[in-house]
From TrEMBL:
Assigned keywords, A-Z: Lipoprotein, Membrane, Transmembrane, Transmembrane helix
Protein name as it appears in the record: OB-fold putative lipoprotein
Phylogenetic placement of the source organism: Bacteria, Pseudomonadati, Pseudomonadota, Gammaproteobacteria, Enterobacterales
Keyword Transmembrane: yes
InterPro entries: Protein_unknown_function_OB
Superkingdom field: Bacteria
Native species: Scandinavium hiltneri
Annotated TM spans: 7-23
């Protein structure tokens, strides 16, 4: 029985490692395709969905399906007050924005190129981030592939 549990644990860890590398590969493919799009002058600009972290949390709380549908195909600009500046287990920079629920901040995963700006950031500052993808993870908004607005 112990061997079975040990093998299940090893398989689970293996899937996590595979998922990590697959998501990193997806990020590099996305950055390559976006730089190609930037070089083409005739490429259409994506529509921007602007909101605040508090409004986004409330919208997801009221109707997750409608909120995702409203943001579909758009880049999302989120303005908020910085609650935390952290790193996750993959060393990605995570900026937490205050929401109406003190235990569930809106979490934005920043691109690695944003490290110098994140280093200078302080709790309580109001900033805007622009994310390529937005979803709801465990009840709170979660942005991916984000950059600080200039």
């Amino acid at each position: 029985m112990k061997k079975l549990i040990k093998w299940i644990f090893y398989i689970f860890i293996g899937f996590m490692v595979l998922g990590y590398f697959a998501s990193k590969n997806d990020k590099s493919t996305t950055s390559t395709s976006s730089s190609t799009a930037e070089t083409q002058e005739s490429a259409p600009q994506q529509e921007v969905f602007s909101t605040t972290a508090r409004q986004l949390f409330k919208a997801y709380d009221e109707n997750e399906v409608a909120t995702d549908e409203n943001m579909k195909g758009k880049i999302v600009a989120v303005k908020g007050v910085v609650e935390s500046i952290d790193k996750d287990f993959t060393d990605s920079i995570i900026i937490g924005f205050q929401t109406d629920n003190q235990f569930m901040p809106a979490r934005m995963e920043m691109k690695d190129s944003e490290k110098p700006t994140a280093i200078a950031l302080k709790k309580g500052q109001q900033v805007t981030v622009i994310c390529e993808r937005m979803s709801r993870v465990m009840g709170s908004p979660s942005g991916r592939d984000c950059v600080f607005a200039k």
